């Protein structure tokens, strides 16, 4: 009865408080636009407007009314979906008009669908528990109390959340055997050693105070949420992306490209899972997002990074980071919510974001990417002129350089981690033995000189010298023992010990210097990786003031560490024959990627005659592939623009026909409301696209085409 009047009661019988539909609808949109706006803040604002004092129970009453209102909206949306003949999976199968609305006669794309996925721990939820009983576990930690949350089987996911039971099919016991190991042929990937944390994450546990510890979504390249899963009492376990890929293969079929910050390593995980055959049949390709390239070595970049992947265009595969920058604002509202209310809040945010942010800006995305591609193509003439001056006949030369570089990196794979050989140890022990002999002789000479000068005799000084003599003698004996042990293991005659002029000595010293150089380079590279990660963190949205100050202070200390590492590297580089390139502070700080570190590992001068190692040629090579990607982007955008225009026309015509055929004015009003939710933006979309079509270089068609 109350709903007929536009009122929602806080109780089924004799309610003391009712909330108007307009108020609830206003809060729904305001909360979606500003996720930080909590129910408590909104209710306090209402109290201020109505001139009444705030009471805590008003929040509970408003929450009840709001839950009922959202349930009515869900019923309404389900009814409309049924009238339109659209099943439960229709939203997911048609999540993005530009990605999924395929047309007759359109050109084939290397990647029929591009998406990105990642985990985010901001939207974690505290689980309510009883007070601890004082018991401790085997590690001496307090045993948490039992959960005191009531069972709530309601589902507010509306098709966005993947079922937890389906995710658990990829649980720890099953996934552990899928993770790639070095003894499995073909499982090793260029960045395996860098991402060993993935193996550790298989057993990682979030603090016991949390139940859901975050979300793991997959988004299309335009930003529409395709599907997501809850991370439950854990970090980014492998079961979450595996479950998502299983669902994405079911929904979108062949030739998908998926971005993931550890896509290089995760491709091997897929290869060793039961998804392997399906992934190969559907030509699934895992990729690495452009902004995560600094954490991957050059060989990995050539295989997985956007610039060098044919068919990827200008897509950066970093949509999750942009989505998280907005969804993180929900954290305060869901931290202490119930499981149902957390899921409801996230779902409402995603629905609003898809319709009023992503869809509203879809034409802007397409136009901006088109203009970016055209800007890149305008630099092609400059590149062609440079190629002519350098005697480079065609772009095939750049492709050959890239092939040579990859082959060289594959040959050198693993050479940075040089093992210390017995010969290297033997030379080092001989050097140590020689140092001990020199030290012992020096102490003996000082004692003889002191005895010769009787007037300067001091008992305390004499005792100190004799103690030093004993220690030096013991050190010499110990050093000789180590030398003799290695001589036995290497079958070297003590009468023919190596000397600094021996061929074997010279070869071992060369290996030692290369080992020290490699270690110094590895240490410098690690510090640069850490520095880039910290700089990313310090600029991240929602990083608190104290945390930013702490990171900034740590960076100042780390800068000194980087300078010291550069100094050690330059000393080691100068000791090589021929000497390796010296590095300055400015060069290291400006490194955006780690690619150049791999070339520094060439210690034998083998790359001196390779043009692709020279900065100017490498810049030209990257520019060439950027131009190729820009051409691919325009080809994809021409397809996506036609899909989008056709979808707008077909959807509007279909919904208007359904509205006219409705059996009652009420039904027609619901369908009209559904049509206008996104239809309100269509005129603006067409205006942008028509304006784009008039730009020089546009090669697409602004016209409606037949559906597939």
TrEMBL record:
This is Uncharacterized protein. Pfam families: KDZ. Residues 147-158 have a biased composition (Basic and acidic residues). It comes from Mycena alexandri. InterPro entries: KDZ. It comes from the Eukaryota. Residues 134-158 are annotated as: Disordered.
